[in-house]
Amino acid sequence: MATLFFVLLLSLLTTCSSVSNENSMNADEHRALLDLVGSLLADSSWTELHPQPCTDTPWPGIQCESDISDADLLHVTSIHIGPDLLSPPPCKSFASLSPASFLHFPFLKTFSLFSCFLYPNSVSLPPSLFTSTPALERLVLNGNPGLSGEIPSSVSSLQRLRVLSLPQNNFHGVIPREIGRLRALQQLDLSYNHLSGEIPEEIGRISSLSILDFSSNQLRGKLPASIGSLQSLEKIDLGFNHLSGRVPPELGELKKLVLLDFSHNNLSGPLPEELSGLKQLQYLIMENNPFNISIPFFLSSLKKLTVIGLSGCGLMGPIPPYFASLESLTALSLDNNSLNGTVPDSLDLLSNLGELNLSQNQLSGEIGFSVEFVRRLGKRLDLRGNKDLCAKPNDKYEEASVRLEAAACLGPGIDNGGKRGVVEDGDGRISSSLDGNEVENCCYFGVSSLWTLGFQGIAIVVALLV
Ligand SMILES: *[C@@H]1O[C@H](CO)[C@@H](O)[C@H](O)[C@H]1NC(C)=O
Ligand SMILES: *[C@@H]1O[C@H](CO)[C@@H](O)[C@H](O)[C@H]1NC(C)=O
Ligand SMILES: *[C@@H]1O[C@H](CO)[C@@H](O)[C@H](O)[C@H]1NC(C)=O
Ligand SMILES: *[C@@H]1O[C@H](CO)[C@@H](O)[C@H](O)[C@H]1NC(C)=O
Ligand SMILES: *[C@@H]1O[C@H](CO)[C@@H](O)[C@H](O)[C@H]1NC(C)=O
């Protein structure tokens, strides 16, 4: 019986070989490939023009590899349609995936489609994609607004999956708990969909995960503490969701984390001091969460921080001077909070800083930054909306061509004179663009009380716009 089968198989292979020159494909696999590609591409002549996609008429989106035991037998291992291809063939307006699409791709390692299902015709993921492709390592479906439905729990059958990247589609429903069984998974990107419900606790079992991106969905509930077990995690982006509750202290165990983005959620404070364990952290993006806390001390121990985004976090109290020790900082955003006290002059020692936004707070006192610093940052230095903040009248600030809207420091109480870094030019005259001629030559140090009354508290453009 077995012999008979073998003979039959052999004769089948021989038949195929006679079609193409040397190499051959399994007939089912061959037909399945032509069917699949035919259901996707607008050009209906493609399958006729490329009858042997693995051999005689190769196509850049298709890759084939020889069978382990038979070098002449070829298997489809990669199907890809994307803009990176040289003259990518466009998908048809009603491209589809039939329920049986993947039944004959036992060796498929990569399936990726970029911007293929563009029209809202409700293509969903066929079950065969999860039950019949045991070799699948990369499933990438990106920018397909016509791709909807749920992410099925059978996704966990893909035990070799390393990359599950499904951003910018129209998926609904919850993230299946079974996703925690994908032990080989390194990248999980479900961003820009309409996923709801909570982040499953089981996420913490995907021990090889290095990238986790669920941003721009409608996820609710708490951040699972189990995320702290993801020891390989380098990037976590959960921004633009409705997550609430506190940030679990376990997250401080993410020793390799480089990027943490929890912005635009409903997370509350306090932030755990354990986050001081994030020694590799470079990007801390938390803006627009109602933390309502003072600036946490643990930031001072994260020496690799390059970008801090804590705008709109309900921050209160002073800006601690330790920011000056975070030497890698390139951008610091603390705007739209309730910070008070003075602006630490020492921030101007941060030689890599190119962006500083402290606007819309309750900061007060004199701006003591060096002219060099003010000049370097230009418009990316924003101190507006702090009504008790004042700038020492100074031509050099003007020369720096910088927009620094702050009242001029007038009156004896505010002008403490000779602050470090501000180049004094004698008369300290400022030029103002406020109402043109009216205020020409208006402002000097030690100006009369009349001027003090007239201008204190009014935003004066200390230096002109470029
Ligand atoms: C935000 O979180 C608080 C509790 O921390 C909760 O009372 C409130 O309902 C949440 N708001 C939204 C819009 O989810
Ligand atoms: C945080 O402060 C804002 C504004 O003061 C307030 O509306 C909100 O209820 C506070 N949230 C929490 C969780 O304390
Ligand atoms: C300021 O922060 C609040 C939350 O604290 C947010 O609702 C608002 O949109 C923010 N404003 C700007 C201009 O970003
Ligand atoms: C800052 O605000 C707090 C109340 O939120 C107040 O107790 C403190 O005195 C203020 N500090 C300064 C320097 O104004
Ligand atoms: C600084 O923050 C404010 C308020 O959040 C925002 O309106 C402004 O555009 C920001 N400035 C810069 C230069 O990005």
UniProtKB/TrEMBL annotation:
Topology of this chain in the membrane: Single-pass membrane protein
Disease resistance R13L4/SHOC-2-like LRR domain mapped to chain residues: 132-263
Keywords in alphabetical order: Glycoprotein, Leucine-rich repeat, Membrane, Receptor, Repeat, Signal, Transmembrane, Transmembrane helix
Highest taxon in the source lineage: Eukaryota
Pfam families, per the entry: LRR_1, LRR_14
Signal peptide: 1-18
Cellular component terms (Gene Ontology): membrane
Cell location: Membrane
Amino-acid biosynthesis keyword on record: no
PANTHER family hit by this protein: LEUCINE-RICH REPEAT RECEPTOR-LIKE PROTEIN KINASE FAMILY PROTEIN-RELATED, PLANT INTRACELLULAR RAS-GROUP-RELATED LRR PROTEIN 3
Protein name per Swiss-Prot or TrEMBL: Disease resistance R13L4/SHOC-2-like LRR domain-containing protein
Species assigned in the record: Dendrobium nobile
